[in-house]
Amino acid sequence: MGLAAETRAVVVVEDVRTHPSWASFRTAALASNVRSAWAAPIIGTDGVLGTISAYVDGVGRPRAEQLELVQLYAGHAAAAIERERLLAEATRRDRILEALRSVLETLAGPEQVHGGLGVTLLALCRGL
């Protein structure tokens, strides 16, 4: 997973028993019946957002169509994550704008400045 995130490319380890990056985890992997692994990065506009990983009980590479499919899923995952971030940012900005609108309406309303100021500050506090 770390190599896929660092290189921003699909990484396939065909045999964890011989691959150097698995030296620290080899005993645990073999005890868990992991013989090969692969990972694909989920890349967004701000960089790597995560990885999609697989651990297999046999030695070898996944088929080309399997790797193509996981790259497609990684693209969909990146789009969903980015969309959620944009929605959260738009929602946050909308709350601020609504608070400011409420403040402006209160200040422009018929109440006196002294009374309206308390209501305005309350609306501002709720919005922010």
Explain this structure:
The chain is an alpha+beta fold and 128 residues long. The chain folds into 2 domains: 2-88, GAF domain (Beta-Lactamase), CATH 3.30.450.40; 89-127, no CATH class. It has 4 helices and 3 strands. The chain has a 3-stranded antiparallel sheet with strand order 1-2-3. β2 (36-44) and β3 (47-56) form a beta hairpin. The longest helix is centred in the C-terminal third of the chain and has 45 residues, at 64-108.
Topology (SSEs and partners):
Layout: H1 2-7, E1 11-13, H2 26-31, E2 36-44, E3 47-56, H3 64-108, H4 113-127
Antiparallel strand pairs: 1-2, 2-3
Helix pairs in contact: 3-4
Concise overview:
This protein is an alpha+beta fold and 128 residues long.
Q: What is the percent of helical residues? A: 55-70%
* Beta content: 15-25%
Overall geometry: rod-shaped
**Number of separate helices:** 4
Report how far the terminal alpha carbons are from each other. 39 Å
- Quaternary state of the chains: single chain
Order of secondary-structure elements = HEHEEHH
| Overall radius of gyration | 26 Å
Largest sheet at a glance? 3 strands, antiparallel
At the first level of CATH, the class of the largest domain is Alpha Beta
Determine the CATH topology of the largest domain: Beta-Lactamase
The CATH level-2 architecture of the largest domain is identified as 2-Layer Sandwich
Q: What's the number of structural domains?
A: 2
Mean pLDDT: 89
